[in-house]
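ping. complex inputs:
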Amino acid sequence: MRRSNYDVKGLPGFFGITILCLVILYAPLLVVTVYSLNDSNSITNWEGFSFRWYVDVFSGPESQKFKIAAWNSFTIAIIAATAATTISTLAATAMVRGGKFKLRTVSFGLISLPLMVPEIVLAVATLIFFNSVGFTRGYMTILIAHIAFCIPFAYLPISARMQGIDDSYEQAAQDLYATKRQAFTRILLPMMLPGIISGYLLAFIVSLDDFIITNFVKGAGVETLPTAIFGSVKQGIKPNIMAISTMLLGFSVLLVTISYFVSKTDNKK
Amino acid sequence: MAGGAASGGSAATDTYKEARNWLLLPSWVYLGAFVLVPVIMMLIYSFLTKEFRGGVVWEFSTAAYDQFFFDRGLFGDEPARIEWTYITIFWRSIWQAGAATLLALAIGFPTAYFIATRPEQARPMWVFLITIPYWVNLLIRTVSMKFMLRDSGPLNDFLIGTGLINDPISIINTNFAVQLGLFYSYLPFMVLPIYASVERYNFSLSEAAADLYASKWVTLRRVLLPAVKPGVIAGCILVFVPSMGSFLAPDLLGGAKNFMIGSLIEEQFKGNAGNWPFGAAASMVLLSMVLIVLMIFARQQAKAEKEAS
Amino acid sequence: MKNLLKSGVAAMALVTMASAAAADGKVVVYHWFEYIPQELVDKFTADTGIEVVMDTYDSNEAMLASLKAGGVGTYDVAVPGDYMVKIMASAGMLDTIADGELTNKGNISPTWADPSFDPGRQHSIPYQWGSTSFAVNRDVFAGDINTTDILFNPPAELQGKINVLDSQGEVMAMAALHMGIPQCTTDRDQLKALNAMLLSAKENWVSFNSDTAKEVLVSGDAAAGMIYDGFSAKARAEGANVEYAFPTQGYIAWMDNVVLLKDAPNRENALKFMDFLLVPENAAQLTNWTQYASGVEGVAPLLDEALRTLPEANPQDGAGQAVFIEACDEEVQAVYDTIWTNLKK
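pong. complex structure:
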């Protein structure tokens, strides 16, 4: 075995698999993008290049509906992911750094409960519950439900990450007269950041994607993107839905590019 | 620095023991009110009498569980035998979800590892690259997947064009299509937790192993894998459990010829059957199965921690 | 902490209530996905000043489930199919429209003024109607398609290439027509034969898809498939060489209806909405958009030319009867559920 220039991290084939992974993830989206530019009412036949479905999204009869739905979807996803990540970070700290305690297994069960109940059952149960306590269905009920089912998706990456962090760092900080709170915010939290970001992103996409529960608890007149587009998708995706999806993709790519360059300039300073 | 990370990543300690209950309170209160209470209501529903075409009558009944476990023939008047129908459906779901999880692990682990070994400022970009496709709605992604896979679709055109195959491979409406669909639905749920774990991994441990002439693969299996186990387990749970209850991929890609547990339960609430107690009972069986597995896993982890400390 | 939580819950409750209290002049419509053109909704609001608040569902049963889970009292009108009107009426979920409450009730065409599912139109008005049968790709099979054998005992060319709707009601009704037995039969031998027939027919089916019933025909995933008339017309428009069949054994008729729900919060506005839909111009605008058929008198001259000559709306001579799906009683429904589960286990 050569010791010089030995790259301990690199593993043969892993780069190839990553590329394969990205191809699998993006190939179906390529279809979406291509057909959003199709000058036809159907997605099955190609009838020439056109931007008319993009125009339709902004000025068609349903443009108002899509605008409001997009606003609702994003605000709900951001609030729900933030709340779920906060709750999960606190819970993970207790579960991983709280020593042994009787309710630990039960707490773990409770936190993973939203994951284990089939969505349709949680949807019906939540709806019955909201009705019996007198909540009127609307934006708030969607938000309440979304925070609940986002929690396990945020919790699992965060706690997995925390389990990998040795507590000697916090101990050292405390030896240097840091309070526990300081040890948490200055030492543990920054080290947990990749876990927290992973959890946040998962919660965000889970909320953004949810249809079943949202459709049951949303009430009349409130739409999120999935509920607004569901009907037209079910009857064979119309190109305007493809256009919306492509713009969503474009928007997210833009965000990523910006954050990439921002972080780059940060590092240079 | 050594102990925790190397011994199965179980760095559980009691730094925040005093604050424990306060830290857990938000999740207890929130999930207790908005998940546990509704689930308990469903548990009660599973022991009530069904109202014809949806709803319940408030009379105690075990009919739902009887229907689940016993077969009384087409007209319900034959002597009871063991009901294999629902066991078959459960088994099919476990199998499909398991295959999808393995597929996700096989692709997701190397991807997560690769991302975690990039230079630090490049990692967020890779993580975003994995999650961006999920900004597009699941239904649209699944329909596009169907478009890709069909006999006359781009995948087969490509394979035929390169001369790898002569006749299109029939993927659509097979079990494999379902597994592929589930895999595609939940891939980031595998990649991100593993990434978060590997990112934390101390590669000096691998170097030490290499110094002792362990090959890369042995190091991966013996040193890295135990250290990132929590992430791998989290990823597997996040892919396997939702796959069990999913019905979009089975319906659209698998042709819905056979019930999965998710579509069976959906049928009880949203379909012709309209048998809420039975739907609730099937959910409770599913819930207890998953719960038992998770509890065993939690117990074992606690045990491992005990041994480590 | 506790106080914080309490005030948090109180704030949530306030916000949810505030959103409900706003806007008096509205009508809350519980409707199918993609089943009313936005232009028509806007026209209603322009005419009456009443705002339309829309919520949508994707199946009759999903709507029923949501109403049973507490939706009654929050919606004014819904649009159930024929058999579902009967189910909802017998469950006491519908309000009665008294004589004279609907100005335009006389516009309902005589054929649809007294349907079996709502005698005397006490709770409902017609929305759209059409048929459900199946379409066959003529490039694959050129023979006689006007027989239910296509689905249940297919010729060699179509074996293993058939899509059926993932809907118990439609499949069971079609199977009953094929076997010449009554729907919801209580005869045990007939039910056993039905079970056996479906199990053997399934060998030749490739998929159960309702939502993509049209798409599988256009893409060629299936060479024949159960389908609604309007979907078949759209499949042809998208270039599929399919022909819609009117089997001699009979086929399924369906009619969606606007019903007045019990405890409707805006009952007056709901009646205005129903009256609006019964005006021939509005009904015609709707029908030209949905491509189905209207139950309102005087619509015919206002329809697009293409609609009148649509092959999917004009059965050939010798076509069988169109029948509505029946709502079975509890005992038979239990057997139907078992058969359906057997079929898909």
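Strands of chain C lie at 26-32, 51-57, 77-78, 124-137, 162-164, 205-208, 224-228, 242-245, 251-260, 322-324.
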